[in-house]
Amino acid sequence: MIINGCLIWLMKNQKDIIFMKNKVEDAAILVYNVMFLKKIEK
Questions:
Q1: What digits encode the pLDDT tens for the residues 20-36?
Q2: How far apart are CA 29 and CA 8, in angstroms?
Q3: Residues 16/9, Cβ–Cβ less than 8 Å
Q4: Taking a C-beta distance cutoff of 8 angstroms, is the pair 15, 22 a contact?
Q5: pTM for the complete prediction?
Q6: Distance between CA atoms of 29 and 13, rounded to whole angstroms?
Q7: 13 DSSP 8-state letter
Q8: How far apart (Å, rounded) are the C-alpha atoms in residues 31 and 42?
């Protein structure tokens, strides 16, 4: 029953989860680029 509840929650919140995932990926890429640029400067 708990699994079904989680699946229903995931389906309801899928758009929000995808949005959050994209935001996390954007942040990770940004951090990676900043670190890469700092490496070049050294």
A1: 899 999 999 999 999 99
A2: 31
A3: no
A4: no
A5: 0.54
A6: 24
A7: T
A8: 17
